[in-house]
Structures are given as C-alpha cells and as structure tokens.
Amino acid sequence: MSQRNTGVTSQVVNTQACPVREVLDRVAGKWSVQILVAASHGPIRFTELERGIEGISRRMLTLTLRNLERDGLVTRTVHATVPPRVEYELTQVAMELHETLQRLTDWAEHNRHYIAKARAAYDAEHQPELLDV
C-alpha cells in the first residue's frame, strides 16, 4: 500500500520507530550485552569488567558504559578513596532487561553446536559459490 493511501508520512513513521530502533541498537550491541550480563551480579569495578570481557578495549568499555549510564541502564558510583574507586551497577530497568538477555544467552549456549553444524553443512554445499564471489 502506498503512503498516499494510508495518510501516514514517512516522517511520522520514523519519528515513532526511531527511539525503539535506537534502544534496540544500544542494548543489543555486542559490548552492551556482555557488560549487562557481567554487571548483573551486583556492583562491579571498571577493571573487573575490562578483565572479564574478552576483546574489549579500554576506550570501547568507557564509551559503552557512558552510553548505558546515559540511557539509565547503569549507575556509576565514585567512592571517595585514594585512588578513587568507581563501581557500576545495573538499574532496575536493566535488571528486567537482563532476564531477557539471560534467556537469549541460554538459547545461544544451548544451540551453538547445532548452528556450527548448520554453518559447516552450508559452507560445504556452497563452497564453489563462495570461491567465485
């Protein structure tokens, strides 16, 4: 159906959809998911996150934490010690999200061997095509 027939402009659709898309992009990001899962057990320090999340750079961890804090998913607490101790903790909204992420993580763990076999079978069947591209 064309937009002329619906009375809905693309601007209205994008205005309504954009915030949802932005939220999903943020919380479904590779690093966000891992940070939210790692911080689900209570307050966690930056260095613990850095050591516990394989492959994340210090800069990417900092940026992702700032974005999660901005979105109200993580709180940052600075303790007045020398040196300062900074802890990150999930907000109640993030704990609700964590339940969903945990189910997704469990599903991925349960099905990872199936997916690996499916990929291998697909690659074996389509190998000549992949070489021609």
What is the H-and-E element order? Answer: HHHEHHEEH
Sum up the overall morphology in one term: elongated
Rg (C-alpha, Å): 21 Å
- Unreliable runs, pLDDT <50, ≥5 residues? none
Sheet having the most strands: 3 strands, antiparallel
Measured distance between first and last alpha carbons:
36 Å
Main sheet: which strands, in order across?
1-3-2
How large a portion of the residues is in β-strands, by DSSP E?
A: 5-15%
Based on secondary structure, the structural category is: mainly alpha
Number of helices: 6
Count every beta strand, where a strand is a DSSP E run of 2 or more residues.
Answer: 3
**Average residue pLDDT:** 85
User: What portion of residues is helical?
Assistant: 55-70%
Explain the overall architecture.
- The protein is mostly helical and 133 residues long.
- The protein is built from 6 helices and 3 strands; from the N terminus they run αααβααββα.
- It has helices spanning 3-6, 10-27, 30-38, 46-52, 58-70, 92-132, and strands spanning 44-45, 74-79, 85-90.
- It has a 3-stranded antiparallel β-sheet with strand order 1-3-2.
- Strand 2 and strand 3 form a beta hairpin.
- The mean pLDDT is 85.
Keywords:
6 helices, 133 residues, 11% strand, 3-stranded antiparallel sheet
Write the layout of secondary structure elements.
Blueprint: H1 3-6, H2 10-27, H3 30-38, E1 44-45, H4 46-52, H5 58-70, E2 74-79, E3 85-90, H6 92-132
Antiparallel strand pairs: 1-3, 2-3
Summarize the structure.
This protein is mostly helical. It has 6 helices and 3 strands.
